[in-house]
Structures are given as C-alpha cells and as structure tokens.
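[09:14] KT: can someone run the structure on this one? pasting the chain below
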Amino acid sequence: MKALKIFKDLVAFLTIIPLAKDESFLETSARYMFLFPIVGAIIGLMVAAYFLLSYHIFTFILSSLSRVFPFPPEFSVRIFASAFTLAFLLVLTGLQHFDGLVDLGNVLGLKSLEERNNLAHAWVVTFKGAFFAFLVEFLNFLGIFLLDPSILFASLICGEVCAKLAMVTIAWVGKPAPGGKGSIFAEMNSRRKINFLACLLSLLIVAPLLRLYGVALILLSLALGIIMERVSTRLFGRVSGDVMGATNEIGRALSLLLIAAMVMA
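[09:31] RB: done, structure tokens below
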C-alpha cells in the first residue's frame, strides 16, 4: 500500500491527475524524487499514444480535405499532430513547468539579487519571460516535429524520462533555497547518494529504446542539470522551484532535438 501511495503522490505532483489524498504528496515527491524518471516514462507513454491518435485523426481529416483543396497533407499532418501533442503535454503537466520558464525569463538581465528574487515570486509576466517561455516550447514543438517516425514513440518516452532526470540532477547537486516549493526538493536531495538510482532507472528505460542514442541523452540530462544549477545559483543564490521546472522543459526540448539531430546525421 505504501508503494501505491508513493506512486500516486508522484503522479499527482508531476501531472494534473488528482491521485493524492492529502498535502503530504509534496514531501513524498521530494523524498522519492529519484523515481521521477519512472513517472516521466509513464507521462511519455501517454504523450506518445496521444501523438499517434492525433496523427491518425489529422491524416484522415486533411487527406479528405486535400481531395477538395489540393495541397500536400503529410506536412500539415505533422504540424498539427506535433502542436496538439505539445498542448496535451502542457495541459497534462498543469503548466507548472511553463510557469518556471516565465519566471526564469523574467529575471534574465537583472543585476540585483533582491530584484531577481522579488520578481520571481511576483505574479508578473514580462516580455522577456513570455518570449523565453515560448521560445523553449517552440523548441519542444520543433523537436517533436523533426523526430523520425520510426522512433517517434520511443523518443517521446525517452525525452520525458531525461527531462525528469535533469530535474533530479539540479536538486541533487544544488544548494537548498531558504523557502518555497523548490527548497524541500533541494533540501532532501542535495548530495543524496540514492539519487544514483535515478541515473540507473533512466538508463534502463532509454537504453533499450534508443541504444547508444539513449546513453547520449543520459549524459545530456546530467550535464544540463549541473549547468542549470549554476544558472540558478548565479541568479537566485540557490536552487529554486522555478528553475527546476524550467529545467524540465529545457531538458525535454534538448533531448528531442538531440535525437532528431543524431538520427539525421
């Protein structure tokens, strides 16, 4: 029963699926953060299934329209399926990581640490924040669009796994924040040896699906987590929940683009 509660709490934290029964799911999620890649695989599986469904639906609709209005439907199908899949993913995860992108973009270029911290906690969307968030999500869209159809299903799963591994890594190597949602994750996971399991679990998922490409994705996720920890420390003096969320979105985008680039090479 405890294992089931842990699983429900992790899913409730990382998605909008209401499985948690009380507020303890936040602490549970932080304590068992090393299991994030498994939940990432489940999210990726749902996203991949949604892509296939939307692809077939748009193929039927646009192929029918192309008989009346001559145009090549294949390109349009990929665009619509990729866009709807990304929208589904953002809704499934409750836009909480998108909010992290906005807050991170808001503070870029500000010189004062106090000003950066105040703006990050304010309900404000600046042009920089909106642009940065939409840029990263456009890269996510581009990554989905460019994926080779033969490995698209596996790639979407692996992209989500690696995004979660990057989140674990930033909390693992980071300095805890004095307050906020991100503080409990960094506090419980900073220098925690059991987080090696996150790397192992991620490798066990992505290596059978993408083989050597999967190993490259693991290395990318670890490197990104370390880099984002430096970015967070430089901007806020510690690891914040906003930067952890942004790391998830950036990690997925880079993973999908790397897969597409390696396959094209």
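[09:33] KT: thanks! The chain has twelve helices and no strands.
[09:34] RB: yep, looked fine to me
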